[in-house]
Amino acid sequence: MPDSRRMNAFDRYNFLLPLIGYLMRNPETTLSAVASHFGVDEVFVREALTTLMSTATYKDFDRTYYMFDVEKLDDEGIISVWQGDVIEDAPRLSARQASALAAGLSIMSTLPEFSSEHEIAELLEILSEGTTESGPAAIHYRPGPIDSDVAVIRKAMLNNHRIECVYRNIRGETSTRQIDPLRLDTRGNIWFLRGYCLIHKELRNFRLDHMGSAVELEVEICDEAKKIQDIDDAEYQSSETDITVTVEVDPEAYSMLGDFSAQIIKEDRKSNVITASIKIGYLPYLGKVIAHYGGAARVLEPASARQVVRNYALTALGLEPEGLPEQD
Amino acid sequence: MTDSQDYEIDASDPSERLLNLTLALISTSVGMTKAELFSAIRDYRNDLENGISVDSLNRKFERDKEALLKSGVQLKTRILDSDMDDNQETRYIIDPSGFQWPPKVKLSAKQLQLLQLASSVWRQASLSSDAARGLDRLRALGTSTPSSDIIAFAPRIKTQSRAFAPLTTAVTEHRQVTFSYRRPDQDEAETRTLQPWRISHIEDQWLVQGFDVARGEARNFLLKRIVSEVKVSKDIVFDSPTQKQIDEHQDELDAHIANNIAILNVKKGSSAWFHYDMSAIDETDVQQLKIQYMDLALLADDLRDYAGDFEVIEPKQLDEAVRQGYEKVAVAHA
To answer: Record's InterPro entries (chain B) (predicted)?
Structure first.
C-alpha cells in the first residue's frame, strides 16, 4: 500500500488524475470502496478529495471544478459527486507505462493457463489503444522456453494436488521428492517452485531447472501446506551457517549482485568495478557461480573460497585440483 | 469521521498546481499564453504577488511542463507568427480527446487482476513506478474491484543493468545516446553512438536495438556489456522508427539465432541434463543436445556452470570460449 506521506508531488498528481476518472464513472461511492479499489488508505483518498475541491483557475472569477457532498463525506464516508468538470475520464497511458505493463503481460503469457487464451492479447490491444503516443512499443519481452514441468505443476496447483518429481539439489544429489506446490516464481528465465516439502516439513524453494519428470498425484495438499498464507519472494534466505565471501565484479557480472542480494562495499568510478560481499550456504557451489562469468567476477577472500573457485576451474580444464589452504 | 480540517492542503501543494495547470489547458479552446497561465493559476499568481523573479517563475513553469510530459500528458504548443523569440505569444493547450480514455473502455475485475500481476513483475526493478502509475489509470476503468486472491504466480523482471533506466528514457523520448561497449573478444571498450529504438528481452538477455550512427546500420547491444554510464543527449532527437524497420531488424537477429547451432554431448542425469530439460529417451549414458544461440560468449558462460557434465562437439569456437573462461578464472584465483 503506497504511503501517502512518502509520495512526492509528481506521484500525487499521477494519482489524482485517475481518481477523477474513477469518480466521474462512479459518482456515488464510498471512501472505503475507493481506497480498496486503488489499494491506498482512506486518509489518503480523503486528502486527495480535499485537493480536488480546492482546484480552481482564475479568469475574471474563480472557476472551481470538483465538488462533493462534504457532510455525507465526513459523517458517513460517502462520496457523492455534486460537480465534475473538464476531465471526464482517466488519462491515457504514457509510452513508458504502457510498455511496462505490456512487458508484464508478455511474461504472464508463459503460464500454461494463459498461453492459449485471448485475455492477454485483448489487454495488449487495449494498452496500445490507450497510449498517448502511437508508435512501436519501447520494451519488447520475449518469454523464454518453458520448462516441461511447469504445465504439470500449474495443473496440480489449480487442483490443489501434490506432485512427485526427481530433484537434483545444490550438492548434486538426486532424489525423488513429493512437494505440495504453492507458488511459481520466475526470475528472468529461471523458474522457481515455492512449495511445502514433505521430507523437510517446511516451505522450500525448488529450481525447476533442477527438476525433472514431475507428475501430479491424486492426493490433496496437506493441511500444513494449506495453512501457509504469506509466501515471501523466493529470494535467497541466508542462514547462520552461511559463509561471507568478498567479490569484485565487472559490469558484465553485475547480475550476480542481484542474485545474491549483495552488500556493496565500494565502487571504482573509473573502472566501474564493484566490490561487494555475498553470503553463500554451500561453498563448493561458488565454483560454478564465479566460473560462469569467465573472469568478470573474482573472489577476494576468504582464501578457502578462492581455492574452491580455482579448483573448480582447474578440474574443468582437466588439471589436478590443489589442496585447500590452511583455514584462516 | 475525522475532522476534515486535518486534511487542509497547503495552497502551494505542487500536485494541486499541476492539476490546475492541466485543467486550465484542457478547458481552453484556443490555448493559453504563459502570462495568462501565470494569472489563472493560484500558485503562480501568488508567486508573482510575492515578488518572485520572472526567471524563477519561468523555471518553475518549465519544470511543471516537464512533469506533465513525463506523465504522458500531450501538452501542445502553438507558436504564433507574431511571436518573436521570447515565447510570450506561444500558446499551450491539451487536446481533451487525446488526454483521456474513450468512455467505452471498461475493464472487468479479472482483467484488472491480470494487469495488477503484470505490474508486479517490475517490483524493485527499473519501471516499477511507471507500471504502478499505469495500473492506477487502468483501475479507474475497472467496473469492480478485483478480489485479492492471487494466481499463485509471482514473476519478476530482472534488470540489474544500470543502463536500463536511461535507455528507457532515451527510447521513449527518441533521444540519441552514447556509451562504452566492451565486446568479449576485445579488452578495451569502444564508444558507441546509438539512436535507440527499443529495449528487448531475448534469450534471457536485455538488449538495446537501434541505429548505430557511426556504422550506419541497425545493431544490437547487450546491456550487460555496456560498461559506462549511458549519456542521453539533450538536443539530438530522432524520428520514431517504423514498426517495419524494427521487425526487419528483429527478423535478421532471429535468422542469426536460427543459424547458430551448437551440438553437445550431455551426461544423463547430470545438472546440465536437468538444466536443459532433457528427458530419457534411450538407455545410453550420454545424450546429444542441439541448441540455438544468440551469442557464443553468452552460451559459453552458461555452459561453464556445468563443468564435467558435457562435451562440446561443435562449433570449436564454443569449446575454446568455455576453456578460455576457465583459464581466466583459474589465473584470477591463483
So the answer is: CBASS_pafABC_assoc_protein, WYL_dom
